[in-house]
């Protein structure tokens, strides 16, 4: 790659995960560009938490995310279709139990 | 007593308003989307601090006798407002004073020029501001101490952000090093005023409201040197320093800032939208 093309290269893409409050999982919030991990966290703070959305941030470079192949959907997910007994829906929950 | 306290509060407030305005000029022009958002966030932080301080200054001003009120500022627009006999508010202090009634340091009115200049100006100011607000926490004036406490978390982040950019650009490419060094060199002569005591600072120190800025200087030097060293940049020699802003004598740049900032309220007094 020539020097010129190199200097025009964009910063790598990062995926951002935000934990909205203690006890909850980090959830994917979106992605952004940054030169390194420190800058990615700062950028994430500025882009995704300015309205009090979070108390913790994870960032990971997008190239390290490995995704399942959409073409494999049938093998991967369809076998679960007729296994209704895997859902814990056969219990009677007391009324006072919320958030289930 | 109140007159000096008003002026002291305005020195802090005007720094915040003017640098906030300068940073806001990047809105929509940032080098990348993420930094555009970051810098406008910080512009709003500064504006928020300015508002708190102006509200406090306005409340002090409204307690003065009418005669004293007329003497405090030489700006006709503000005097006209006072002559109406109505209390003033934060907006009046921001919009109705002319440049000679502004007490910010000249550093913060320097133009953005490029990203390196913007970073250098923030780096010099944020490092000072963090040390200053930390001292202000123990001010005998409870309102100023409370504002310092509220602002400090923001200022902590500002300092980290601008320091990291100095390192990133200073220890970056040949071009970024050259630009960062040029910005530091050019703005260095405006750094001194932040820590040179004028009569208002001395008054505030005597009354345990302010702090000894000369003491801040050593820490400021230490912190900025550490960052500049890490950035592989030359630390400029401490030569002659520009002063005057804190006493109302400004560079031509402030006039342009105020023209843009104040135009609507001067052209359409009391306009709301």
Compact summary:
The complex is a heterodimer of chains A (100) and B (273). Chain A has 100 residues and is α+β, with helices and mostly antiparallel strands.
CATH superfamily of the domain at 3-67 in chain A: Phenylacetic acid degradation B
Shape of chain B: globular
Q: State the share of residues found in helices of chain B, binned by percent.
A: 55-70%
Secondary-structure content class of chain B: mainly alpha
Count of extended strands of chain A: 3
Beta-strand percentage range of chain A: 15-25%
Strand content of chain B: under 5%
The residue-averaged pLDDT of chain A reads 85
Task: Determine the most extensive contact between two protein chains.
Answer: A-B, 13 and 12 residues
Return the average pLDDT of chain B rounded to an integer: 96
pLDDT < 50 stretches of chain A = 1-5
The unreliable regions of chain B are none
Distance between the termini of chain B: 37 Å
> What's the helix count of chain B?
11
User: What is the structural class of chain A?
Assistant: alpha+beta
Your description of this structure?
- Chain A has 100 residues and is of the alpha+beta class.
- Chain A has helices at 3-8, 37-48, 73-77, and strands at residues 13-19, 26-33, 56-61.
- Chain A is flat, with a radius of gyration of 20 Å.
- Chain B is an all-alpha fold and 273 residues long.
- Helices cover 67% and strands 0% of the residues of chain B.
- The two termini of chain B are 37 Å apart.
- The mean pLDDT of chain B is 96.
- The chains are: A alpha+beta (100), B mainly alpha (273).
- At the A-B interface, helix 2 of A face helix 2 and helix 7 of B.
